[in-house]
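Example 3.2
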Amino acid sequence: MRVISGSAKGRRLKSLPGPGTRPITDRVKTALFDILGPAVAGARVLDLFAGTGSVGIEALSRGAAEAVFVDKDPRAIRVLRENLQGTGLADRARVVRADVFAFLRSGPPHPFDLIYIAPPQYRGWWRRTLELLDERPGWLAPEGTAVVQIHPREFEEVPLRHLRLADRRDYGSTHLLFYRRHEGEPPPASGP
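Structure, written as tokens:
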């Protein structure tokens, strides 16, 4: 893994071995940031189930104003801190060792422009995370995007009130889902 673009371009990132993390390939990360485009510059980023921090670090390298990384695994936190130091981006980062669900229930300090969700596979945690964000829509800025990284076989429709699925992309065994704020449809016109 490496930083693809920006101020830390080319810097190698340490990885965390084992089944508990869901690493993003350079190809998928490039595609993700091509889709997000200039919206990353100046953004507030929340990297949930952060693991090694690859996505949040890429966002910082590309000019995000800040990134908050949340993970409860002490090994992941250690590697994440090393990656932030190695890329020189630690000054705009906050690392939180916490359970993601407890963290989200605590309420947002401010809205985030980009929320990245990449939990361990096949546990349904991506859906639970989306449901928590939907219950507390203040986590996502009005024009923000929540991106979910899952295996395509994990996908299912999730009934949501404040978020809607705006786009989905497949890259082999990686499925990216893009959710945006949506305050509901206007009521239907009444008949005569």
